[in-house]
Structure formats: structure tokens, C-alpha cells
């Protein structure tokens, strides 16, 4: 992710050494278990973690903004000026806005898959929801919701 955002390769290498150098052991029944290295994710309490999280969020934001510029994602127009909002982030929650169509859902899914590929993070679709405007026909809701998340939309 950092390389694709233009960070110097040497800097990325130093940061990755810090992230990958961590080991854990489990203390069980009064004994320490063997050390092991985590396969993915950032360690809690590491002073670098919040900054790396923000870098990942910025990378995701850039992917979404690029898709918007390319016309693959339209967002939702809000307010009197009809500003198109394509996404909002808060802490570790993300909201994406787009067309209620299989094409819109396919484009959104492609953006998420690209983010997963670049960042190494995986979106938990079991914790994901789709909300539709009350103006969206129920047939389209079922079609898009079922296709995108494998469940009905809300």
C-alpha cells in the first residue's frame, strides 16, 4: 500500500521490519507457550499502528476517489449544492455510496477487492450491510443485495 502511494522503498522496508519483528507467546496454566509470529494485522498498543491504519485508510480513499473520477462510482448527491459524496470513514468504519444497480455493486466490489489485494486486509462481509433509499424498487434491492453480500439488502 505504502509503495503504491509513493513512499520511498527504503522507508517502506524499515516500517515493515518494525511490523514483522513482533512475536507472541501464550501464557497458559502457568507456562509460556512457544513464540509465534502473527500472519497478518497490526499489533495493538504499537505506537506505529494508528499511523499505519491511517495510511491504509488514505489508500482506500484514493482508490474510491479514482473510481469516482473514472466514472465507475458516482456517490450520492447531498445538500443544496448537490455535492456527490462517495465515501465516509470514521475510526475503523467505512461507508461507501453508489448506484443501486448490479453494475454499481460490481464496481464497488472491484474497488474493495483491489484494496484487499494492495493492503493485505480483508473486508468482513458478515459485518457489512447495504442500505437502500426508500425510492429503490424492492426487486433491485433483492438483486443488488443478494449479488453483493449474498444476502438481502436493508
Automatic annotation (TrEMBL):
Q: Where is the Reverse transcriptase domain?
A: 16-131
Instruction: State one molecular function term (GO).
Output: RNA-directed DNA polymerase activity
Q: Which protein is depicted?
A: Reverse transcriptase
Reading the lineage from the top rank, the first entry is Eukaryota
Species source reads: Gossypium australe
Looking up Pfam families in the UniProt record yields: RVT_1
| Keywords, sorted A to Z | Nucleotidyltransferase, RNA-directed DNA polymerase, Transferase
Q: Which residues form the signal peptide?
A: none
Q: Which InterPro entries does the annotation name?
A: DNA/RNA_pol_sf (IPR043502), Retrotransposon-Effector_Assoc (IPR052343), RT_dom (IPR000477)
